Amino acid sequence: MSEEFNDLSSFEMSMVIRQLERSDIDKILQMQKVCFQGMEPWEESQLLSHLKIFPEGQFVAELDGEIIGSCSSLIVNFDEYDDRHTWDDISAEGYITNHNPEGFNLYGIEVMVHPEYRRMKVGQRLYDARKELAHRLNLKSIIIGGRIPNYHVYAHEMTAREYVAAVSKHKIYDPVLTFQILNDFTLMRVNPNYLPDDKASRKYATLMEWNNIDYKATTKRHFKTSYPVRICVVQYLMRKISSFEEMAHQCEYFVDVASDASSDFVVFPEIFTTQLMSFLDEPSPSRAVRKMTEYTPQYIELFTNLAVRYNVNIIGGSHFVEEEDEEIYNIAYLFRRDGSIEKQYKIHITPNERKWWGISAGDSVRVFDTDCGKIAIQICYDIEFPELARIATDMGANIIFTPFCTEDRQGYLRVRYCAQARAVENQIYTVISGTVGNLPQTENMDIQYAQSAIFAPSDFEFARDGIVGETNANLETVLIGDVDLEILRRQRQDGTVKQLKDRRHDVYHVEYKKD
Predict the structure, then answer these.
(1) Do the Cβ atoms of 71 and 47 come closer than 8 Å?
(2) Which terminal residue of the chain, N or C, has fewer Cβ atoms less than 10 Å from its own Cβ?
(3) Would you please indicate which residues are annotated as catalytic (active-site) residues?
(4) What does pTM read for this prediction?
């Protein structure tokens, strides 16, 4: 054998099926234009959402470093979806924000292989990767809504159901359906209007299922009849104090109350820590605010310890924080009961904050995982901008907490009415927590007006008038109320109205420009 054939590396090829990475996205977008000509391609934001929500379910096929195929999926409880669901229904308009880690079924929403590589069993490898994932996650089945791209050739002579029957009996070849049948998928039904832009399939899709014969039923996952979350809302009295420790004792008292009531969350108001200004002896508001930021480490340490010690998740109101850029931000912190911490910057700064304190704006909408589902925090003025709540809901939030600080009834009602509107528009729970009392010695913190509350969507299964509970106005007190995430889930699917499902994406959309 000649020497040149002793080294076989120059003849080797590398075919790899691996998890999608962010650096692959541009290549996927380009490949999709080739694979599905005339159909609306992915948006980058959708693929980023897949990576964020369920990275294990997104695969690519790579040949010698080139992306030649991909597939996307999510986990659902398929019984929760209507028999005639569309691709938009099952994929949350392509963002998979409806992904349910506790679900029973892996749902495939797309498979594609570059036309130049369609005789290399790339699709087979991608399907095998899905099956391996279903085995590993102990999922009951894989369900797909498959295209029938050759149907347009026969549409003038047979119905979609007749076409599918002919393909199933191998009388007609369809590149997608035939392949799925050979991969042990069985036909469940034929869905019309599945993909409106799939002209080749005449909008039809075959609902197919592969059953995992190794699936083991467990008691770990089950359908819940109820998923209650208890919330303690603090209506905090602003009063003159003489030290940080005095404020800390006041905060611990409320956390203790929340813990005794077995609360999952306790919520403090916006910038209630400006109470510290009452002993700083600084008449200039801008200088007083910078002095107050020096207490940030003590504030964070206090609430971290309280969350762990009292076993309750704390929305620590909000606090003015000076960061490395020497700008001051209004930041709300989530102190989880496991000791971890998250933060949400206030995005819309009021004219008052800008004029008196020079507060800078944040620019990111965050949604946080907790042991009671996904939540968001939108500080005071932010709840008055409906786009933010819609973005948070699309990211999976079930509850939006709004710490607020308003000085008069008009300002308070703006917060209240908008929080109630967000609950209806997005089929979520909203919570508002405000300050009362006054700090007569502190410039720009003279008076406070609040009536804290918990709001629900307005429908039969929720609290009357959409109000879970509310405090009396302008008294220091707490409100403790239960919200049910299972009722929320059911109402999003089968409520009297379905604001999330009935949105007209063909007419309008909300675009979030941050990654």
Answers:
(1) no
(2) N
(3) 270, 346, 380
(4) 0.67
